[in-house]
Amino acid sequence: MDYLLMAILGALALGVNILGPASNRVFPVYFRNGEIVNPEFSYPFRRNIIPSWLAGLLAFIVPFIFIILLQIRLRSLDDVNTATMGLIFSLLSTTVFQVFIKWIIGGLRPYFFSVCKPNISVTSVGTGQGFHGLMFDRSICTGDEKEIDYAFETMPSGHSAIAFAGLLYCSLYLNGKLKIFANYRPQYWKFV
């Protein structure tokens, strides 16, 4: 049953990640005087330094190494299995939660305009939606659809979320096995 749940969570996260942003987001480009509204979204496009798959792999491998190293003291295959399943559940549930928030809430990445490549001139300000017609939707974008979808989903950071999930699980696992914060005074070497 656990393996089925993990497969469902993984498929759910992958499915939501493949979908475009949930809502039709609107954004301003120019003020009425022709000035760019949000220059912080005009940075040049840069790929991730660490790809998402590598961040996920590191978030699994680093705690897994600690789990395996602790087996020098514990010598329990059942503990390895249970700890690994817990780690995978931690990573998968964090990924699903993060992907859903990013899908529903999102936001604009700092390089949004360089990916969107809006086809709008300063003279067409006022033809959009909202107050004074300053807001536009993705129909003015001429860039690649996948890159635009990715540029619409900025927060929360997937890299930070997965790293936090893996390392928090690792710290709780180590605390549980080494009894670092127990009621009695533990040996000093356990802190190191």
Automatic annotation (TrEMBL):
Top-level taxon in the UniProt lineage: Eukaryota
GO CC, one annotated term: membrane
Membrane topology (UniProt): Multi-pass membrane protein
UniProt keyword annotations, A-Z: Membrane, Transmembrane, Transmembrane helix
InterPro entries: PAP-like (IPR043216), PAP2/HPO (IPR000326), PAP2/HPO_sf (IPR036938)
GO biological process: phospholipid dephosphorylation; phospholipid metabolic process
Keyword Heme in record: no
Keyword Cell inner membrane recorded: no
Record-level Gene Ontology MF annotations: phosphatidate phosphatase activity
Main location: membrane
Domain Phosphatidic acid phosphatase type 2/haloperoxidase: 84-180
Subcellular location(s) of the protein: Membrane
Transmembrane segments: 52-72, 84-105
PANTHER family per the UniProt record, alphabetical: LIPID PHOSPHATE PHOSPHATASE, PHOSPHATIDIC ACID PHOSPHATASE BETA
Family: Belongs to the PA-phosphatase related phosphoesterase family.
Protein name (record): Phosphatidic acid phosphatase type 2/haloperoxidase domain-containing protein
Gene source species: Rotaria sordida
Lineage of producing organism: Eukaryota, Metazoa, Spiralia, Gnathifera, Rotifera
